[in-house]
Design a protein that fits this description.
single chain, alpha+beta, 6 strands, about 40% strand
């Protein structure tokens, strides 16, 4: 399994396993959903750079989860962003494909008004991971 699939799958699984979060959103997606009413979560494509050691394959990953909601619900968006942040911080270290999280650091949350009716919170983390198995 490639590192992108390993980290995005782990983030989606962690979010889907958070009952308090799942109860408040209409879905968790990896591509924009035009049919699903807001609020919903979108796991954005990560940016991966080499973080290998002399004898281990490694990646540094910048990954963002977008909380899509209506502009009138800014308080709810902030609360959902806090849940996303906490969920990723508590994500298990063992990933699919023999990858292991070495460190996970919250970077930032930003609220962006898309237009007069929609708002998105962007929750970004930096994850460093190493391949420890096949």
């Amino acid at each position: 399994m490639n590192p992108q699939e390993a980290i995005t799958g782990a983030v989606r699984a962690a979010l889907a396993g958070q009952a308090a979060l799942v109860a408040q959103v209409n879905g968790i997606f990896d591509a924009p959903s035009h049919r699903t009413p807001r609020p919903y979560l979108l796991v954005d494509d990560p940016v991966l750079t080499d973080w290998s050691t002399k004898d281990q394959d490694g990646r540094e990953v910048r990954i963002a989860v977008l909380v899509k909601d209506s502009a009138q619900a800014r308080k709810r968006v902030r609360g959902l962003a806090e849940l996303v942040e906490a969920t990723i911080a508590d994500m298990p270290a063992a990933l699919a494909g023999g990858w292991q999280v070495a460190s996970s650091v919250f970077l930032r949350t930003r609220l962006v008004a898309e237009d007069e009716t929609n708002v998105t919170a962007i929750v970004e983390h930096r994850v460093r991971m190493l391949r420890t198995g096949p």
